[in-house]
Amino acid sequence: MNSRFFSLVLAAVLSLTLTGCGYNDFQRLDEQTKSAWSEVLNQYQRRADLVPNIVATVKGEAAFEQDTLTKVIEARAKATSIQVTPETLNDPAAFNKFQAAQGELGSALSRLMVVSERYPDLKANKGFSDLRVQLEGTENRITVARNRYIQSVQEYNVLTRSFPSNLTAMVFSYQVKPNFTVQNETQISAPPVVDFNKK
């Protein structure tokens, strides 16, 4: 009888201990993070898929700056050549490499859109106009997907660093996940220079 009572008490204590350790929360949040990351990748792929159509349309404008087109093509090739796996989420170096490549593609596409403003025939082209709207919509989707991923990672990282779940993180080697960062953080942290005396 004593042995059975002791077993029940031990089972109850273990159950309460495991409930408070956060193990199940780690599993839930890890899956949530992976799901959010998949959506980010989905939107990046959508953008990459638009690039060939945009380039083909712009090439129709004979005088268009070849250098700008080349940079877009090269940036797309670089961004799509990086293999991304679920392990990328736990490897800050691989994550930063991927993020940098996507940033280059975004910058190249932005430059392409700015330069295209100088070409009236291109601006009037219905196909290009439609592609531009699709690209803008995709950039908005990327922003939303990245924000969801950032929130998921924040939740996971708080669990990883909070007591007592940090003990579970240590036991099972759960590491803090890297998050998106701004590539030009030092540049944007400097206040803009406004000179009203320039003419």
Architecture overview:
By secondary structure, this protein is an all-alpha fold. It has a single domain, classed as Up-down Bundle (de novo design (two linked rop proteins)). The chain contains 8 helices and no strands. The chain has helices at residues 2-21, 23-59, 66-81, 92-116, 120-124, 126-161, 165-172, 185-189. The longest helix has 37 residues, at 23-59. The termini are far apart.
Characterize this entry briefly:
The chain contains 8 helices and no strands. It has 199 residues and is mainly alpha-helical. Helix 2 (23-59) packs antiparallel against helix 3 (66-81).
Question: What's the layout of helices and strands?
Answer:
Elements: H1 2-21, H2 23-59, H3 66-81, H4 92-116, H5 120-124, H6 126-161, H7 165-172, H8 185-189
Helix pairs in contact: 2-3, 2-6, 3-4
